[in-house]
From TrEMBL:
Residues 10-304 form the FAD/NAD(P)-binding domain. It catalyses: 2 reduced [2Fe-2S]-[ferredoxin] + NADP(+) + H(+) = 2 oxidized [2Fe-2S]-[ferredoxin] + NADPH. Homodimer. HAMAP family: FENR2. FAD binds at residues 38, 46, 51, 91, 132, 299, 340. This is Ferredoxin--NADP reductase. Belongs to the ferredoxin--NADP reductase type 2 family. Its EC number is 1.18.1.2. Its cofactor is FAD.
Length: 369
């Protein structure tokens, strides 16, 4: 494929949170070609990013399910429909293309900060509270080394072998990364945090304290206030302000900040769609925004009576899929079909073979026998 060649599809879903994933499933059942795009390197939205181990108790027919498990179950349900999910790509631009005599031609172009371009005929924004972006170290000069010596996302272990690595943050991600590095082949591992309190559970804290006690991880308490570069432009050290008002230089080869994630509605607020208190205003028949062809579902939308619950987002996604299918195939009556009885739907889901018989490997999904 040519670089930047647009990926052409019927619909693009922005956001691979629970509602975006279920949206893709519902569009797949309608045989609408769909791609999903998310800024995070993993699917699941808030459930995977903010509370992977916490239990959700109000999902229909799932008495208890962790955030991570919900994300995995939604991906499992989507798998037979073979929907491409593009991760680590923030959608930064959305534009309407000029009208064309051919009603089937794309109406929208989307671009991501990672260089992907999509052309499609319908867009569903399932962006929740916005794109989760890593919190940045408040030292602007460090931006010059991002992707070379400063990494906010995972990097292959081979890159830290023999390196002096500074992990920054008091989060679970920071503690786990420091421990992984200490067990790997990094030359030195320093954990930099403003104080000695970490937002982590007791067993992880115990593990961290014993690694610090054994000297596998060096703890440095303070705040970075500047960057020190070599003559040839490499990042050589961080300038640290300590709690007792001293300045020290912390030498490093790699800086891996893990300061948590913060949601940013960002570009979506600039696409000219009607907003109410930073939420996209939609109608409730097909969850279309103020712009025909652009729908919004889940936490990102607002309408009278809106509740930010996963189950409400699932309902919105179902109706949005019917509305999109009808708009894309105006001459067809989009009938309601049950997955229980529709051979067409069962074929799509791979639970019957082409002849209508039960496919091998057909299974009940669930924990029961
Ligand atoms: C601690 C906690 C507990 C909760 N417990 C429950 C519960 O028990 N029951 C319940 O029903 N709800 C619960 N919720 C709420 C529930 O998690 C949300 O309603 C749900 O996650 C909304 O799903 P969503 O798909 O609309 O958005 P999100 O989960 O926010 O996902 C949106 C996704 O869109 C991506 N995105 C945003 N902008 C862009 C962009 N420009 N480009 C690319 N990607 C983008 C984000 O990275 C994100 O992955 C809880 C929430 C929290 C924080």
């Amino acid at each position: 494929m040519r670089d930047n060649a647009p990926l052409r599809t019927d619909a693009v879903v922005i956001g691979a949170g629970p509602v975006g994933l279920f949206q893709a499933f519902q569009l797949g059942l309608q045989e609408v070609g769909v791609h999903v795009v998310d800024g995070l390197p993993y699917a699941g939205g808030q459930c995977a990013a903010l509370y992977p181990d916490k239990y959700i108790y109000d999902l229909p027919a799932l008495p208890g399910c962790s955030g991570e498990e919900l994300a995995q179950r939604l991906l499992q349900q989507l798998a037979p429909l073979r929907v491409p999910v593009h991760l680590g790509q923030v959608v930064s631009a959305l534009e309407r293309l000029p009208a064309d005599a051919d009603a089937r031609s794309p109406r929208f172009r989307l671009q991501t900060d990672g260089g992907l371009t999509f052309e499609c005929r319908a867009v569903v924004i399932a962006a929740g509270v916005g794109a989760f972006l890593p919190r940045k170290v408040p030292v602007p000069e460090l931006q010059a080394w991002e992707g070379r010596q400063v990494y906010y996302h995972d990097l292959p272990p081979a890159q830290w072998v023999g390196q002096r690595v500074v992990v920054m943050g008091g989060t679970e991600a920071a503690a786990r990364l420091a421990l992984t590095l200490a067990q790997g082949n990094a030359a030195h591992v320093t954990l930099l945090h403003r104080n000695d309190r970490f937002v982590i559970d007791a067993p992880l804290d115990e593990e961290l304290q014993s690694a610090i006690g054994a000297g596998w991880i060096r703890l440095c308490l303070g705040q970075p206030v500047g960057a020190i570069a070599t003559d040839d432009g490499r990042l050589e050290a961080l300038e640290i302000a300590t709690a007792d008002d001293r300045r020290l230089a912390l030498p490093l080869d790699l800086l891996l900040p893990r300061l948590g994630l913060s949601p940013r509605l960002g570009p979506i607020a600039e696409w000219g769609l009607a907003l109410e208190r930073k939420h996209l205003v939609v109608e409730t028949a097909g969850y279309q925004t103020s712009e025909p062809g652009i729908h919004a579902v889940g936490d990102v939308n607002t309408y009278p009576g809106k509740r930010k619950l996963i189950v409400c987002g699932f309902h919105e996604a179902t109706l949005a899929a019917f509305a999109i299918a009808q708009a894309l195939r105006p001459d067809e009556r989009i009938a309601l079909e049950y997955t229980t009885t529709s051979t067409r739907l069962q074929r799509l889901l791979g639970v019957v073979d082409g002849a209508g018989g039960q496919a091998s490997g057909t299974r009940r999904i669930g924990t029961g026998a």
